[in-house]
Description:
With about 290 residues, the protein is of the alpha+beta class.
Amino acid sequence: MATESFSLFDLAPGRVFAERFRIDKVHRHNGLAPAFLAEDQKSGELVCLTVFSPSTFESTAQAEEFRVSCQAWMRVKSAHVAKVREIIALPSAGIAWVSEVPHGDALKRFTEEKKRMEIGRALKVGVALLDGLAAIHHVGLVHGDIKPSTVYVDSKAKKLGVELVDGGITPGLWNAKHLGERTALIGTPFYAPVEQFGGESPDVQSDVYNVAAVLFELITGVLPWPGKSYLEIFQAKLDRHAPSMQKRAPDLELPSGLEGAIAGGLVADRRERYPSVAEFRAALERVVAE
Length: 290
């Protein structure tokens, strides 16, 4: 790797970054690295450029371990996962992801308004997310941080478009040399399963849990657990029983089987959750069919 570094000034709108990407504007923040809309002057296409500064890593070796571990994301093929096109090593141990621009808006815009999504529509979102995760898990990867800000929904498309972004960042950083030990709460505590609070790496069951938490919020308009602080949320998640949608939203009329379908993904003990996204999907499909 080169020894020269880069600064935020190099990522300002209009600047050409890494002698290739003309920066347009910030697209999103995932908490660990900003993603920019940029023109790839090599292809002429608009892409998302997610940039990890050298300060993210403790050494060049750690950055390289993260880069290599993320290469597998280019093998994921699903209409419900924003395609990762390239992982680039930047000067002074920085890393950049080049991916497709997701269509529509992040679900976070919807959840911030505390609205309730129509149940049939929410279930379609859930099925699409689980289909995307099936493609991710098929190549031996996990997303690791599914939440409203990493789910994009295109309501203008003829068929509801749903895409996952920022997959692999949390587990990739978690598994990079020593990084998981230093940052035991990588991820988003409001959607993360209880085992991640103890420093365990994300896995298939944590992805299941993330999706169940997002669907719970979409349908009820509130998070599954009461409390505002991380400590309050953590303590609530220690309950071995899954949170009840009916108790959190008493006025909501739920179709038969929905409560149990969501609860199967929100159990505190990961061994009692759905063992695969296929089983979670089947449970949601049964609700749709009733």
